């Protein structure tokens, strides 16, 4: 884990560093910065971190402003804000910050950050363009993808989205949950209600014929997936 701490107060910085070592271990790679401009310059020079701790009230550029710039350089960067006030909590939320910690920072707060990161990392997303807009959708709510005129309809549990890319350009970002049922149709197996030898029934009531030449392989892959899911749930008890 590569961690950056942007904090101008020496005592607070030492407290955070001590907590980081306790939670993430001595092997975590940590760099310290006293102002937002310095951490931005490091990022622009190619020095990237998995997790950034920003004091909100930094000299010069505010921590919120510095975090916005970091997100432009590295959209996957995870941000935690540290402050004495909740004044900028709304802005922190808009940046999808992992947490908003109140000083003095304690190890328990950092363990909660680590827990939130683990939960967040379990979630996977499909990134795509809809027209000129950059979008993403959580794979857990993506029911199926259907090719349409060299573009793709994305049917989710919350409605339909549209991708400007062909289906073939999107499938590499999908995980083991997704199965090609027929030409131009990829289904999230968690969304399959019933699987038969020649068709499957989706949760929304749609009946889909399996690709004739691949029926045996499709059924086998679905059965293997269901069996593995049952095993994993049993192991978690």
Helix segment tally: 7
Largest sheet: 5 strands, parallel
Task: Report the CATH C-level class of the largest domain.
Answer: Alpha Beta
CATH topology of the largest domain: Rossmann fold
Order of helices and strands: EHEHEHEHEHEEEEEHEEEEEH
Would you summarize the structure shown here?
The chain is of the alpha/beta class.
Layout: helices, strands, pairs:
Layout: E1 2-6, H1 10-24, E2 29-33, H2 36-44, E3 51-55, H3 63-73, E4 78-83, H4 89-94, E5 99-102, H5 107-122, E6 125-130, E7 133-138, E8 142-148, E9 151-156, E10 159-163, H6 167-170, E11 178-182, E12 185-188, E13 192-195, E14 199-202, E15 207-209, H7 215-235
Parallel strand pairs: 1-2, 1-3, 3-4, 4-5
Antiparallel strand pairs: 6-7, 8-9, 8-12, 9-10, 11-12, 13-14, 14-15
Helix pairs in contact: 1-5, 2-3
Describe the structure.
- The chain starts with a strand and ends with a helix.
- Strand 13 (192-195) and strand 14 form a beta hairpin.
- It has helices at 10-24, 36-44, 63-73, 89-94, 107-122, 167-170, 215-235, and strands at 2-6, 29-33, 51-55, 78-83, 99-102, 125-130, 133-138, 142-148, 151-156, 159-163, 178-182, 185-188, 192-195, 199-202, 207-209.
- The chain is an alpha/beta fold and 237 residues long.
- It is 35% helix and 32% strand.
- Helix 1 (10-24) packs across helix 5 and helix 2 (36-44) packs parallel to helix 3 (63-73).
- The strands form 4 sheets. It has a 5-stranded parallel beta sheet, with helices on both faces. A 5-stranded antiparallel beta sheet has the order 10-9-8-12-11, covered by helices on one side. It has a 3-stranded antiparallel beta sheet with strand order 13-14-15, with helices on one face.
- The protein folds into 2 domains: 2-122, 3-Layer(aba) Sandwich (Rossmann fold), CATH 3.40.50; 125-235, OB fold (Dihydrolipoamide Acetyltransferase, E2P) (Beta Barrel).
- The radius of gyration is 23 Å and the shape is elongated.
């Amino acid at each position: 884990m590569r961690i950056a701490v942007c904090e101008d107060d020496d005592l607070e910085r030492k407290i955070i560093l001590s907590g980081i070592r306790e939670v993430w271990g001595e092997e975590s790679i940590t760099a310290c910065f006293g102002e937002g401009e310095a951490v931005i310059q490091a990022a622009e020079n190619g020095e990237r971190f998995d997790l950034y701790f920003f004091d909100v009230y930094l000299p010069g550029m505010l921590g919120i402003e510095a975090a916005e710039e970091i997100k432009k350089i590295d959209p996957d960067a995870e941000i935690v804000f540290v402050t004495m006030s909740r004044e900028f909590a709304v802005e922190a939320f808009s940046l999808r910050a992992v947490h908003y910690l109140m000083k003095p920072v304690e190890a328990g707060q950092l363990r909660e950050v680590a827990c939130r990161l683990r939960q967040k990392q379990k979630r996977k997303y499909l990134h795509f363009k809809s027209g000129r807009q950059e979008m993403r959708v959580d794979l857990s709510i993506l029911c199926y993808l259907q090719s349409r005129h060299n573009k793709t309809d994305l049917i989710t549990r919350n409605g339909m989205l549209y991708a400007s890319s062909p289906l073939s350009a999107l499938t590499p970002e999908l995980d083991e949950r997704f199965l090609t049922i027929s030409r131009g149709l990829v289904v999230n197996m968690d969304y399959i209600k019933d699987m038969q030898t020649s068709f499957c029934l989706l949760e929304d009531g749609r009946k889909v014929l399996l690709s004739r030449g691949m029926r045996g392989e499709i059924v086998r892959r679905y059965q293997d997936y269901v069996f593995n899911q049952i095993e994993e749930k049993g192991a978690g008890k």
